[in-house]
Amino acid sequence: MTYERFEDLPVWKAAISLAERIYALTERAPFKRKYSLRDQIERAALSVSNNIAEGFERGTTQELLTFLYIARGSAGEVRSMLCFLERLPAFEDLKSEIINLKSEVEGISRQLRAWADSLQNTEIKGQRYLSEKDRSISRHKKEKAEFLDMLKSYKK
Asked: Residue 149's pLDDT is what?
């Protein structure tokens, strides 16, 4: 499946949801007076979705790959901080929520890795390199595939 907007990407949706959940977590009492920790985990969490979006919008496969790895690095940073929080007595009451967030960020990291792996094996250079003729051919292939899918649905 081809996506035209980063907002439609399942991994971006998961990453923005993670950022929302991290921001909700940092509103909790144990984060009061821990400004640098709060700021760092919030920035890292938001960085995951932002780097997916930036890479997607760049227009080349190589730049997308670069930003996917940056996003993956930010996901690792979030996971590391969550591991740290698990060790602090002040966060004991949030342990199950922290464990759930770690699982969520691990899933995002796996999605980013799988996407990057698939991009490394493609000959497509990216939208920036497509001529009008290439775009037309790509559009016709997409329309053909959609038509064939529609025909298959009628056979059922």
From this structure: 81
